[in-house]
């Protein structure tokens, strides 16, 4: 690993005045603040207001008033806001990248990629929203005499709770289809990473989103969550499985819908005929991209016995050559973890594994010389299910190599987890790789890629199964989930029940033979 001393100048766009302007939209009537820090240096960037329950209620009141007008605005005009926003988001990507980097510590390559996500989501739903939201005529129960129309209505105010690992993508991208559908949004980002989503809201308003429609409240999750969920008509949550259970329980009690995008312990299966150099390169991104803090990243790699050593040697060599350091340019391959607290969690997983007999092939240690939350890209061998990192999500740059003898064994090992968010299968014969993919219990499976192909396919729903979540983002359901269905049915002439003089028996006979006739005519 290259070691370069820390010589860092904060990006020129990140001025104190800019940061103060951004956080000024967060309500905080108690005066309490949270010290939002630059991850690479630990220096305080800005005091982030913390919202009280009363502040959150007020944010919902304001959002609800704005939502009524927004829902009454013709869809075409609503969508025009997002056409303008798309241009702004792309033009201002370097500034967003600066904010993402200072607040999360990720390397610049990942930060700029993150900025693309809301623009991609806008592009997709700009072409799809009008069709999805248009009333759809369905057949009624009696041909010609009845109609039923599916009318989509906004839910009202959607509460979004977002994590720190992709603050701009999860905070803004999930709001876009909700807003297009005519809802207001109240977003609670993670305290650590509130800056980039706040700038996203500012850009949306610059593009013409009505003021008040998109509110941001801040605070620790357990303080803000209960009030937010009590006020919301729907909750979109991205975060850990443990918190997802808490959110899901409260949404259930309130009888509101929720979408929960949770953690993973994602496997990569390398098949015998895989192009090994590509698989190794894929595994570098899979395990160390975003410093191992991607929900869909890889923590377990299953290799055929025959190719284990070949893969291991190439993988370790490439990992040791990674350029890991703090920089606000595109140089480093990997940046920091998000915080010293998270560093302790990652370290505890590695220490626990080593104490229970795992071998560190490379990495394995914090790097305070690089910054307060740096951890080396780490490859382990001999990880078992009695180790923390053998079963639970580490969410850091730590990956374990495993051997398999048969493909059946590889599939069984990949599925031997409570999670089911993402999997990656590598093989020269795509048909055989597809057959393996079909047996993996996971909401996403990428063949000859780690995650980007599935995640960037905005037309296909992406979510987790098992303990990795409920519902999905993207695809038609990624917008329709933010709507209620109203079934508007019309009966043109009253024909139900026996007509004059007809016995009930005769009426029933006619009704039952009518059912058969309609089936034969395939009318229903
Ligand atoms: P977390 O669950 O601790 O926090 C996520 C968000 O929930 C934060 O804003 C936090 O403040 C808030 N929160 C915490 N407790 C809360 C409560 N009781 N009520 C309401 N809100 C509460 O998760 P994290 O550590 O910040 O994020 C990392 C996790 O997110 C990982 O498990 C990762 O896999 C997951 N993730 C999943 C996806 C996905 O799409 N499936 C995407 C990104 C991250």
From TrEMBL:
<dbReference type="GO" id="GO:0036243">
    <property type="term" value="F:succinate-semialdehyde dehydrogenase (NADP+) activity"/>
</dbReference>
<protein>
    <submittedName>
        <fullName>Succinate-semialdehyde dehydrogenase/glutarate-semialdehyde dehydrogenase</fullName>
        <ecNumber>1.2.1.16</ecNumber>
        <ecNumber>1.2.1.20</ecNumber>
        <ecNumber>1.2.1.79</ecNumber>
    </submittedName>
</protein>
<dbReference type="InterPro" id="IPR016161">
    <property type="entry name" value="Ald_DH/histidinol_DH"/>
</dbReference>
<dbReference type="InterPro" id="IPR016163">
    <property type="entry name" value="Ald_DH_C"/>
</dbReference>
<feature type="domain" description="Aldehyde dehydrogenase">
    <location>
        <begin position="32"/>
        <end position="488"/>
    </location>
</feature>
<feature type="active site">
    <location>
        <position position="261"/>
    </location>
</feature>
<dbReference type="GO" id="GO:0009450">
    <property type="term" value="P:gamma-aminobutyric acid catabolic process"/>
</dbReference>
<comment type="similarity">
    <text>Belongs to the aldehyde dehydrogenase family.</text>
</comment>
<dbReference type="InterPro" id="IPR050740">
    <property type="entry name" value="Aldehyde_DH_Superfamily"/>
</dbReference>
<dbReference type="GO" id="GO:0102810">
    <property type="term" value="F:glutarate-semialdehyde dehydrogenase (NADP+) activity"/>
</dbReference>
<dbReference type="Pfam" id="PF00171">
    <property type="entry name" value="Aldedh"/>
</dbReference>
<dbReference type="InterPro" id="IPR029510">
    <property type="entry name" value="Ald_DH_CS_GLU"/>
</dbReference>
<dbReference type="GO" id="GO:0004777">
    <property type="term" value="F:succinate-semialdehyde dehydrogenase (NAD+) activity"/>
</dbReference>
<dbReference type="InterPro" id="IPR015590">
    <property type="entry name" value="Aldehyde_DH_dom"/>
</dbReference>
<dbReference type="InterPro" id="IPR016162">
    <property type="entry name" value="Ald_DH_N"/>
</dbReference>
<keyword id="KW-0560">Oxidoreductase</keyword>
